[in-house]
Amino acid sequence: MSFAPALHAEWIKVRTLRSLVGGLAAILVATAVFSALFASSADSGVDDTDPLFSAFFGVSFGQIAAIAFGTTALSSEFRGGALRLTLSAVPDRGRWFAAKATVIALPVLATGLLTGLVTLLLGKALLGSSGPAWGEGLRGAVGCGLHLTLMALFAAGLTAVLRSGVATLSILIPFLLIVSFVIGDLSSGVADLLPDRAGQVALHSSWDGSLGPWSGLAVTAVWAAAALLAGAWSIRRRDA
User: Fold this and answer.
1) Residue 57 DSSP symbol
2) Engineering a disulfide at 127: which of 7, 131, 175, 223 sits with its beta carbon 3.0 to 4.6 angstroms away?
C-alpha cells in the first residue's frame, strides 16, 4: 500500500473515534477557558507584567489535552492485536508510522491554530488596553498551534516506544504538572531546554533565558523528532 491510502486509512480511524474527536475539542476548550479565567484575574491586577502570556496562559493546560490526543491515537494500535491487522494492510512499518504521525500532526495543528486565534481574541477582549499588540498576539497564536502539535507528536513517539498509553500519560502528566515546575524553580537554564517550557517561550512578550520564540519551538521540535525516531525504531524492531 502506498502512502496516500495508508494516510486515508489512518484518517478514518481518527475521525471515527469519539475519544480522539473529543480530545481535539478538549484542546480548544481547556486552553480558551483557562486563558480567559487568567486574563480576567490579570485584568484586575494579579499579573500584568507579560500581556502575551496573560492571554495564552491556558496553553499550559491545553498541552495536556494535546498529549492525551497523541497518546490515545497511537496506543489504540497496541490493544487487541490491532497493530497486526494494520501491518497486514501496510507491511511497510516506516510508511505506516509516518502516516500515523501525519494524521496526528495535521488535526492538532489545525485545532491549535484555531485555539490560538480564539484565545487571542478572548485575551484582547478581557485584557483591553493591557492586552498584547496584534503583531505579538498573532505570533503567539501561531506559536500556540505549533507548540501543541509538537507536544502531541512527542507523546506519540514516546507511546510507540512504551507501547502503553497509561505508561506514557503516567510519565508525561506528572512531569508537566510537577517536575517541570520544580526544575524551573531550581535552575531556569536547565528548565528552558525541557520540551514544554521551551515551546512556550513563544507565548511570552519577553524571556530572561537564552531562547527566543522560534529557537524555543526548535528545541521542542528536536524533542518531538527524537521521540518519533525512537518510536519508529521500536515499531521496526519489535514484534507487533
Assistant:
1) T
2) 131
Q: Give the tens place of pLDDT for each residue, 188-207.
A: 567 788 899 899 999 998 87
| Euclidean distance between CA atoms 133 and 19, whole angstroms | 36
Instruction: Tell which residue, 129, 123, 117, has the closest CA to residue 37.
Output: 123
Q: Is the distance from CB of 172 to CB of 67 less than 8 angstroms?
A: yes
Alpha-carbon span 131 to 133, nearest angstrom = 7
Residue 27 neighbours by CB under 8 Å, 6+ apart: 62, 65, 66, 69, 108, 111, 112, 115, 148
SS3 48: coil
Residue closest to 65 by CA, chosen among 144, 121, 148 = 148
Nearest to 203 by CA among 117, 139, 154: 139
Say how far apart CA 3 and CA 79 lie, in whole Å: 24
Asked whether the beta carbons of 69 and 43 are under 8 A apart, the reply is no
Tell me the pLDDT band of 172, cut-offs 50, 70 and 90. Answer: very high
- How far apart are alpha carbons 203 and 151 in whole angstroms? 15
- Confidence at residue 235, expressed as pLDDT on a 0 to 100 scale: 92
